[in-house]
Specification:
This protein is of the alpha+beta class. The protein contains 9 helices and 13 strands.
């Protein structure tokens, strides 16, 4: 009975939510601009025009033309293009160039101009312990944070006074990660354990864990290497280029109220890679959703989980991906 009431109330809320949603949207880092031909000069000029639009979009519509370094950033547009393709209009009329820029590079350019971007990657929570078990401070971890920033990732530090029951490199269970995501609003956590000139690392990205070890001639070298290793791993997982429309089913558990359901839909529809969301059924505290997306469901789930509002969950029958709602 509770399931039926929740689904009915949720569906009514969905009908009351604004009908303007993410259907038809593309990545904020992808732009299509007109071109006259396929020459290198015309292509590079189009890259600059496209980047100016992406910069304005990621800066919340601000006019950046007067910002220091703006012209130089546009000149360097070809160097941060991740993917491009030419397109022709109906019956061969007109030509355009679709360009996708590297997300981290765009965010760094925005930051260097002194502007707060609006669509950057979620921060990575750092929880690194010394040999005696104490949590390392901001000053000690500065080389790690700097290496991450140079690769387009921001860092936040765990509160040393609230880490007694926090996960470690050796032990990071789902409930501990869930509690961290709820507290720090991110699904990305780097756990570390230092042993002199070496360290063990565990990168938790929305649930899945990646472990590795590293050594360094100094603590600065050790932490810099860890920051670059983190960026490499997250880049492979999160920086997936979308193309076309992909249909799939997403299962989301932990939906305990109509408000949870409404917030879940709002979160999904705010993602630029989500074209359409339709609720199919409810069971227990979970919802089966039909999705039309610009990414495979597994890749979309990785990106959603990184944001901290959803975390990866156990596989569910009939679903292409499964997530857990973080209250």
């Amino acid at each position: 009975m509770r399931l039926s009431r929740l689904l009915i109330v949720g569906l009514l809320l969905a009908l009351l939510l604004p009908t303007v949603h993410a259907q038809g949207q593309v990545s904020p880092y992808t732009v299509t601009v007109p071109v006259n031909d396929t020459s290198e000069a015309q292509r590079d000029e189009a890259f600059g025009v496209a980047l100016s639009q992406v910069l304005a979009r990621t800066a919340g519509g601000q006019d950046l033309r007067s910002k220091p370094g703006y012209t130089d950033v546009l000149k360097g547009a070809p160097g941060i293009v991740q993917q491009y393709q030419y397109q022709r209009g109906a019956a061969g009329a007109g030509m355009s160039l679709q360009v996708t820029f590297d997300q981290g590079a765009v965010q760094r350019a925005i930051a260097q101009m002194g502007v707060a971007g609006t669509t950057g990657k979620p921060p990575v929570l750092l929880l690194v312990r010394d040999e005696d078990g104490s949590v390392l401070t901001k000053d000690v971890l500065a080389p790690l944070a700097q290496a991450m920033v140079s690769r387009g990732y921001n860092a936040v530090l765990a509160d040393p006074g609230k880490t007694a029951e926090s996960p470690t490199v050796a032990s990071a269970d789902p409930e501990q990660i869930f509690n961290l995501a709820r507290q720090y609003k991110t699904g990305l956590v780097l756990l570390g354990q230092v042993h002199g000139d070496s360290a063990d690392w565990n990168l938790v990205s929305g649930g899945p864990q990646q472990r590795w070890s590293g050594t360094g001639t100094s603590s600065a070298a050790l932490f810099t290497d860890a920051g670059n290793a983190l960026a490499d791993r997250l880049g492979k997982q999160l920086n997936v280029i979308g193309s076309g429309n992909i249909d799939g089913k997403l299962w989301v558990s932990g939906v305990n109220s109509a408000m949870d359901y409404a917030n879940l839909l709002a979160t999904l529809r705010a993602d630029p890679m989500v074209r359409q969301v339709v609720t199919l059924s409810a069971q227990g505290d979970g919802m089966m959703l039909a999705m039309k997306t610009g990414l495979p469901l597994s890749a979309l789930a990785n990106n959603l989980a990184a944001g901290g509002r959803l975390l990866q969950a156990d596989a569910h029958t009939g679903a292409d991906a499964s997530l857990r709602w973080v209250h």
